[in-house]
Design goal:
- By secondary structure, the protein is α/β, with parallel strands linked by helices.
- The protein has two domains: about 5-130 and about 140-265 and about 470-490, 3-Layer(aba) Sandwich (Aldehyde Dehydrogenase, Chain A, domain 1); about 270-450, Aldehyde Dehydrogenase, Chain A, domain 2 (3-Layer(aba) Sandwich), CATH 3.40.309.10.
- It is about 40% helix and about 20% strand.
- The chain is built from 14 helices and 22 strands.
- The strands form six sheets. The chain has a seven-stranded mixed beta sheet, sandwiched between helices.
- The structure holds NADP nicotinamide-adenine-dinucleotide phosphate.
- NADP nicotinamide-adenine-dinucleotide phosphate (NAP) binds near residues 240, 249 and 343.
- This is Aldehyde dehydrogenase (NADP(+)).
- Keywords: Oxidoreductase.
Length: about 525
């Protein structure tokens, strides 16, 4: 595909109005062609106006038509998979084979959401028929369905340049809900963003949908994101990135004349607890497995486990030695951007200043933005006195927390802020302690894994990728998995309607054969 560097606003390729940028290859520190356009508030307004104009037609597409559209995006992604992975590898320093896997995952998500749409369960259809004879007053016929919330602004993430970016799960779930999307491309991978955006636009055109169903904008600072969040025609926002960035956008949206939901996914250290019998039986194996997962994506994944808590005792030395060995063997690998690399280096310095001790370091970096792995250690009591030590250092580092007994382990668990996930390693004799730990973790995480790690993540109906603040800004929803569509839906009740005026989904006789509850059954 010939990259033009344009903004993609509806069907139009729009040239720069606010300057341009080139992509950076973080492995070589060299810029890559071509120039990519920056836009501003006027381009956001153009995209939002088109999205609003597209809304009525797109949100009323039949389930079959919308599912076919999502499948076309998947097919288009399959067609460009190799080219997309190659460009994303140049722009991120991530291995091409891994990025091919990401592209496959992205296409699969669109197919999974096509299935969600066809099944129609997301509409949560409910019918409470009229009760004309009811005393003391009759009940009217009530019918409910969920509809799309309106045009949605999506901030593409930096760390998974395909499956959490332009053609990622946020876009797939919003389009599945019937919501037009305006995508704010991340400047860390502009070429990969353009390839993905063009596959989505192609499907919009193939299916004869209104051009405003999808647009992609890009900007050279905060102004473009602020314009998106402020725009009165935007009705919801999703964001994956830093806590300060996410919170700035969240607060901004609440100050609008019409506040809107902002679903941010920001930070998580995914604490891992090893209970005593498991430590004694499998300390080395768990330590090795933990570091393997911590190193995924050079530690730049939301589910990387980065804090491990274990009680000193049988198996502790084996655990510690295995972690040290694995870290010291880890080659330094290119991080996503100079900014993320710089924040990682600073984060490690801050950890040391706060009293954590470096007990192992990976192989030295041989490139400017290569992240060197690190393992730090701290006593449980120290961590309890320095809560900032439990904050995320985004990159290939881990903190081993040595606690003296079960009570201290539970106290450390209570000290954590909200998390996307937590893991417990246990054997049968550990169950009693696990029962005490469980309610503490339930209050603080969206997902609890036993005798495994949060990686790899499945995308299913039961997937939860969310959690209490600051993991996300709204713990009631997940940003991955089939129920992530719920972020973009709202209920509408139809009362006393003649059958021919009802949406087909709610008509007598259930013409579309969809799952519906009738009188709660
Ligand atoms: P980021 O700096 O928060 O940026 C994410 C996106 O939001 C970018 O498109 C950025 O635009 C935009 N943005 C950020 N703050 C904004 C503001 N105040 N107003 C308007 N737009 C704003 O995140 P990042 O660049 O992906 O990575 C930086 C740090 O985020 C990492 O070091 C890491 O700590 C964290 N992070 C965490 C996760 C996770 O899953 N836990 C994932 C990714 C990143 P510009 O690029 O144009 O500024």
């Amino acid at each position: 595909m010939n990259l033009t560097g344009h903004l993609l606003i509806g069907a139009a390729d729009v040239a720069a109005t606010e300057g341009t940028m080139k992509a950076l290859n973080p492995a070589t520190d060299h810029l890559i062609e071509p120039d990519f356009a920056f836009g501003g508030a006027a381009q956001v307004d153009q995209a939002a106006t088109l999205a609003d104009a597209a809304f009525d037609r797109y949100s009323h597409t039949s389930l079959a038509e919308r599912a076919a559209f999502l499948e076309s995006i998947a097919d288009n992604l399959d067609e460009v998979r190799s080219e997309l992975a190659a460009r994303a590898a140049l722009e991120t320093g991530l291995p091409e084979a891994q990025l091919e896997g990401e592209a496959l995952k992205a296409a699969t998500q669109f197919r999974q959401f096509a299935d969600v749409v066809r099944r129609g369960r997301f509409l949560q259809l409910a019918i409470d028929p009229a009760q004309p004879q009811r005393q003391p007053r009759p009940r009217m016929d009530h019918r409910l369905q969920k509809i799309a919330i309106g045009p949605v602004a999506i901030f593409g993430a930096s760390n998974f340049p395909i499956s959490y970016s332009v053609a990622g799960g946020d876009t797939a779930s919003a389009l599945a809900a019937g919501a037009p999307v305006i995508l704010k491309a991340h400047n860390a991978h502009p070429g990969a963003s353009e390839i993905q955006a063009r596959t989505i636009r192609k499907a919009v055109q193939t299916h004869g949908l209104p051009e405003g169903v999808f647009s992609m904008v890009r900007g050279g600072g905060n102004a473009i994101g602020e314009a998106l969040v402020d725009h009165p025609l935007i009705k919801a926002v999703t964001f994956t990135g830093s806590e300060p960035g996410g919170m700035a956008l969240y607060r901004r949206a609440q100050l609008r004349p019409e506040p809107i939901p902002v679903f941010t996914e920001m930070t998580s250290v995914n604490p891992t607890f090893i209970l005593p019998e498991a430590l004694a039986a499998r300390g080395a194996e768990i330590g090795d497995g933990f570091i393997e997962r911590m190193l995924v994506n050079v530690g730049q994944a939301c589910l990387c486990p980065s804090i491990l808590i274990a009680i000193r005792g049988a198996g502790f030395d084996e655990l510690r030695n295995a972690m040290r060995k694995r870290v010291s063997e880890a080659p330094a690998r290119t991080m996503l951007t100079p900014g993320i690399h710089g924040a990682y280096v600073e984060g490690l310095v801050a950890m040391e200043s706060a009293g954590a001790q470096v007990i192992a370091a990976g192989k030295p970096a041989d490139a400017t933005f290569a992240g060197r792995a690190a393992l730090l250690e701290i006593e449980g009591q120290h961590l309890l006195g320095e809560p900032a030590l439990a904050h995320e250092v985004f990159g290939p580092s881990a903190l081993l927390v040595a606690v003296s007994d079960a009570e201290e382990l539970l106290a450390v668990a209570r000290s954590f802020r909200g998390q996307l996930s937590a893991a417990i390693h246990l054997e049968d004799p550990d169950l009693e302690l696990a029962r005490r730990l469980l309610p503490i973790l339930e209050r603080r995480t969206g997902r609890i894994v036993v005798n495994a790690f949060a990686h790899p993540q499945e995308v299913t109906y039961a997937t939860v990728h969310g959690g209490p603040f600051p993991a996300t800004s709204d713990s009631r929803f997940t940003s991955v998995g089939m129920t992530s569509i719920e972020r973009f839906l709202r209920p509408v009740a139809y009362q006393g309607f003649p059958d021919e005026l009802l949406p087909q989904t709610l008509r007598e006789g259930n013409p579309l054969q969809l799952p519906r509850s009738v009188d709660g059954q």
